[in-house]
Amino acid sequence: MKQILHGHIVHAPKLGALEILENGYMLLENGKIAGIAGALPDDWKGCEIIDYSDRIIMQSFCDMHLHAPQYPMLGMGMDLPLLEWLNTYTFKTEARFADVDYAREIYRRLAKELIDNGTTRVCAFSSLHLESTLVLMEEFEKAGICGFVGKVNMDRNGSPELQENTEDSIRDTIKWLDACPKDAHIQPILTPRFTPSCTNELMAALGKLAKERGLYVQSHLSENTSEIEWVRSLHPDCPQYWESYDKYGLFNSHTVMAHCVHSDERERKAIKDHNVVVAHCPDSNINLISGVAPIRQMLNEGIWVTLGSDIAGGAILPMMGVIAEAIRSSKIRRIHSNWTVDFLTVAEGYYLGTTSGAHYFGAGDGFANGDPLHAIVIDDRHYVDTHRLSIRDRFERAIYRAKTDDICAVYSAGRKVK
Amino acid sequence: MKQILHGHIVHAPKLGALEILENGYMLLENGKIAGIAGALPDDWKGCEIIDYSDRIIMQSFCDMHLHAPQYPMLGMGMDLPLLEWLNTYTFKTEARFADVDYAREIYRRLAKELIDNGTTRVCAFSSLHLESTLVLMEEFEKAGICGFVGKVNMDRNGSPELQENTEDSIRDTIKWLDACPKDAHIQPILTPRFTPSCTNELMAALGKLAKERGLYVQSHLSENTSEIEWVRSLHPDCPQYWESYDKYGLFNSHTVMAHCVHSDERERKAIKDHNVVVAHCPDSNINLISGVAPIRQMLNEGIWVTLGSDIAGGAILPMMGVIAEAIRSSKIRRIHSNWTVDFLTVAEGYYLGTTSGAHYFGAGDGFANGDPLHAIVIDDRHYVDTHRLSIRDRFERAIYRAKTDDICAVYSAGRKVK
Lengths: 418, 418
Prior knowledge:
Two copies of one chain form a homodimer. By secondary structure, chain A is of the alpha/beta class. Chain A has helices at residues 82-95, 100-116, 130-143, 166-179, 200-213, 225-234, 241-246, 265-273, 282-287, 295-300, 319-336, 346-353, 355-360, 391-401; strands spanning 2-14, 17-29, 32-37, 48-59, 61-67, 119-125, 146-150, 152-153, 186-188, 191-192, 218-221, 256-259, 277-280, 304-307, 375-378, 407-412, 415-416. Chain A has two domains: 2-60 and 365-416, Urease, subunit C, domain 1; 61-353, TIM Barrel. The longest helix of chain A has 18 residues, at 319-336. The model of chain A has no long low-confidence stretch (mean pLDDT 97).
């Protein structure tokens, strides 16, 4: 089936490159991009045109780190640092997902809010609960979200209401993996919560599973200085935090590590050499007073950087807002380097929130030919524009103002989902 | 006329103190607060009750620094530092306000967006245009906004399309002052743009006007290091920036100075001793890479700190969002002080965005008896709440999520304006 979307087309094929085509045509065959053209090619004349005239068709977002069961506490507990926040708010909130009906209700709402804000691909943590994790995957699937969801493993240092024993954790993980539909848009990813939450035995079992089944892994790395100290005391044989994952085969190509705020040169080299993906979570890192990650440095070193909302350590769900916070964080690094380190431009921030994450899911650069369409359409015609703003300015306003209602359509894997 | 609002009542009478009354009653006489009570007093029984059951009645916001004519460029040009941004975007945008019809249309929309987001009191810059400034005051008045608006003075270092000569600037200022309605909720405030924009002759004339007519003054101070150098070269006789205002009688009690990012101990002492009000603009200071103001230090020193959106250097209009950014900025100061300086709690941020600004307009502490009501009502009942959140948590969520649509009612000077 051939379809054409007509409007202003904006995408970021490379870091810092923003391609803008005014009044262009996006050609689709069975939901896959067949080309972008300034004028309608002859062999496409007569095909269905979906008219987004004077609206902006741009790439949708990838949220590479979020905690789905923390959604009910979004925007709360922000006066507490990481480890206290975990114990006071987070573990209690996650424990409620033992109730599958509750999970269904919350996850349906979360999926809707993600799609409404143009997040079409995710790398998400569930809770430790097997059934609720399957519910989360179902609700994401139904809403049209693609990507990965992980049942959390945690067999130590949890709370009375939120902890597994090692045997249950391994058994439930295998049950869960076996229960995941093979052809779904949402696939499983192994998810040891973080080193302090997992015994060596559990880590070893997860490493074995990753290898046997060719699974990807997601976890947390070097978010907070106290956490780093804690890991050091738990793994005195590991000079650095990342090695507590690596020794169990959990620090591989396409492992997603959230935060990496305090990763020094040696750890960053390991991240790069192992082709590990950094999920930078700017809002969370400031809210929980963790620090400000050296993103420009990572990019200069060739590290694969993506963005995450990290709800609910992050209080901002729309990735447009997360991109703006990533830019702000990079400006803070600039200020504190005495104005020597470059900040992220809007085009760069947008690349990190779109293409860089999309690569994880096998997509090409920007709106690449052959890729299933992941896009949002911005309708900003309600703003006064007597002086004809450039599409570049309107794009930037969409990112900074981050208005959910301005997103009038969302496409995910070629399907219209909003 | 007696009226009663019934709901959860939240206010911040002192820095760091958040008073919460569940299922309380706000007693109003002719729009003025006559008391807050946990149970309805006998002599109030039978009066009209406006039922906000299970909604949160809380203080509305004061935006102590915003540039009304920059509203059309909100969220744009964020890749540029202050002085370039002024020349590329700002001056061009402000110049359009020579057109009164354009001003009417833009200012009507701005006023609506402010009220919709619960900003009921402002200290706002207009452009240099006399007529459009009166239009801004009218539109704010109509929308129910209270506070101060200033016709900008700038007779040097503007742009070809945006600059006055000295004589016109003084003459138009007097004409404007004489044209302002005496009994309006919006009153005039003298507004030299900033030292580099005003000749000594103009500054002297404004100082004279301030004294003769007992007018307040607003301007910018120590926002950016290049700007500070520039002021030094323009006023070699002034050891510090603030003295370039003080020598013309423009650094007085109730002068509002935006930013003060780089004010050192001596300048901060002058701010304190002169009872000058700091309008902290956290989002703008990061967007324009100016720096991160030492707000905790200022508070410890007893300086009067308030908050401003500084649109459009700031890209966030809702003061809920500005409060969250102020908290984030304070956490950045904490990170960069090696976790020694305290961050702003949510209660403290809220105080700065409400009571501290309200004092400027003569209000008391929090919901003080005798004050005309300035309040918003948060309806957050659409969120799932199967586990009965505390009012404190719901209040915090309202600040962090900053959803315009969650504000179901706004009261300004005792009148319901949304």
